Hints:
mainly alpha; elongated; 5 helices
Amino acid sequence: MVALEGRRRDAGWIVLATVLAFGAQELSRLVMGDRGAPIVVAFVLGCAAYLYASRPGRLPFTMLIPGLLQLAPGFLGTNATFRALTMGHGASTATFFDVILLAFQLGAGIMVASLLFNKRRRRKARAQPAPAH
C-alpha cells in the first residue's frame, strides 16, 4: 500500500489483484509447463481490472500495477536481469530477448482485455437513449 501509494479503500483490491495474478500464473504453469502463459495471465488480470473500473470513480490501474508487479518477476524478468548483472553466473538461462518477449506478451494480454471492455462500453453507450433537453 505504501509503495504503491494506494488509498485505504483500495487495499483489498490491491491484495486481490496480487493474489489473482499469482494464482493465474501458477495455474498457467500447471497447464502450460514451467514457463506458463504470460499472455493468458495478463488477459485475466486485465479483465479483472477493467471489471473493477466499470464502476464510476475507479481506475483499472489500481489492480493492473500490483498484478503486473507480481507477474514480471514471477515469470523471468528478475532472473534475466540478475544473470546480466552477474555476467552470466546466475542460475537462470533467461536472456533479455526472453524479457522483451515476456513484456510483449503481458502488454498484448492487457491490450486485448482493454479492447474487449472498451467495445462493451461503446456498445452500452449506443444502446442508451440520448437525454432530452
